[in-house]
Amino acid sequence: MTMAVNTNHDSLRQQLQAGADALALGLSDAQVGLLMDFLALLQKWNKVYNLTAVRDPQEMMTHHLLDSLAAVAPLRRHVAGLQQGGAVAAVRLLDVGSGGGLPGVVFAICCPDVDVSCVDTVGKKAAFIQQAAVALKLRNLHGVHARVETLTTPFDLISCRAFASLPDFVTWSRSALAAPHGVWLAMKGKHPYDEIAALPADVAVFHVEQLTVPGLDAERCIVWMKPA
Prior knowledge:
Blueprint: H1 2-22, H2 29-49, H3 57-69, H4 72-84, E1 91-96, H5 104-110, E2 114-120, H6 123-135, E3 141-145, E4 157-161, H7 166-173, E5 183-188, H8 193-197, E6 203-211, E7 220-227
Parallel strand pairs: 1-2, 1-4, 2-3, 4-5
Antiparallel strand pairs: 5-7, 6-7
Helix pairs in contact: 1-3, 2-5, 2-6
């Protein structure tokens, strides 16, 4: 049994490493180890807390970890632009409806200079994020149990993945967006033309960025938005 578990762990780690290499993320061995530890935590807590509908470790790797990793390079690029422009010293990111910490925990591991808060209305999901922060020793990761509409702390970036429609996402999280440089990063599947058309007039889409997820044959994109 242990042998089979180890073999499975090794093959998943190889897949993760290959995916990170394909995305040119330059992750350290320690970061790859943290992502694997996070996957193990997610599997363990999922049995009790139902954090995600995906149960199979292989599917978790492609549909959750690698899917989230595909957004890391665009995030790093934006963060570097903020820092170079002198807009902010320490970048704060809010991940909305984070659930099992996707992409929030992945962002925290891969971007240690970004302070990541994952907000969820479900207490046990926010508790899982706090547990992950302790277990993985991530000082830049925080779980927040709240409705996003009630948050007023200014964040430089607000992200979501499979959370809500774009109009709802920006409307609910508006009070938490830092002015004047704050942006929204929404991870989507196919290009959401209808949702973009339904955005409030005072929100502008400045880029729809296509993503390629290693090992996943599906359309993915990031919709970048800012107050108009």
